[in-house]
Amino acid sequence: MSRDTTLSQAVIGTDSLLRKVLLVLAGSAFIAVAAQITVPMFPVPMTLQTLAILIVGFAYGARLGALTLLAYLAEGAAGLPVFANAMNGAAFVGPTAGFLVGFVGLAWLAGFAAERGLARGVLSTALVGIAASALLYLPGVAWPMAVAGTLGLEAGWVGMGPGAIWTHFVAPFLIGDAVKAVLAALIVTGAWSVLARR
């Protein structure tokens, strides 16, 4: 097993278009289901959506991971209730739209790190997951702070200042994001360990 392969390549291979399409569909369905699962957490409950996205990215690699997220976003845009709280394309004009778009980058970064061998041990994979999750906040907070208003959207969350953004969009989710990055690391490295014992 080459150290520069992804988990999906090691398990089933991705040499055919059909396999890639099936992986994308399975991955987007996995993320959609995870987005509906809410776990009690302090200070706010968390969904397992970003956990699933990290797992898909680490397992699929950069390109296939990003394609899976693009398919997931397209499913939501088409009206399927795949986003958190069974939301669909309406979420693209809501306060979390920046995070939705950022999910593509989250999967790509996790996959890129996996392909480069930077995400093989539990610690390195967790650190990559934490760093990628932190970068997700860039599009996540840019949307309510500036982008939504520039596009003409009007809502109470549009144009919020840094203090309100920190209070409502960042601080409540930091602990959960760190926990999900560690869980993704344990799951993915555990799968690699199982493969190594075969």
Features:
Arp2/3 complex 21 kDa subunit ARPC3; 198 residues; 67% helix
Summarize the structure.
The protein has 198 residues and is mainly alpha-helical. It has 8 helices and 2 strands.
Explain this structure to me?
The chain is an all-alpha fold. It has a single domain (7-196), classed as Arp2/3 complex 21 kDa subunit ARPC3, CATH 1.10.1760.20. It is 67% helix and 2% strand. The chain has eight helices and two strands, in the order ααββαααααα. The protein has helices at residues 7-11, 17-35, 49-60, 62-77, 97-115, 122-150, 162-170, 174-196, and strands at residues 38-39, 46-47. A two-stranded antiparallel ribbon has the order 1-2. A hairpin with a 6-residue loop joins strand 1 (38-39) and strand 2 (46-47).
- The chain-level mean pLDDT equals 92
Largest sheet at a glance?
2 strands, antiparallel
User: Strand share of the residues?
Assistant: under 5%
C-alpha geometry? globular
- Pattern of helices and strands: HHEEHHHHHH
Let me know the number of strands.
2
How are the secondary structure elements laid out?
Layout: H1 7-11, H2 17-35, E1 38-39, E2 46-47, H3 49-60, H4 62-77, H5 97-115, H6 122-150, H7 162-170, H8 174-196
Antiparallel strand pairs: 1-2
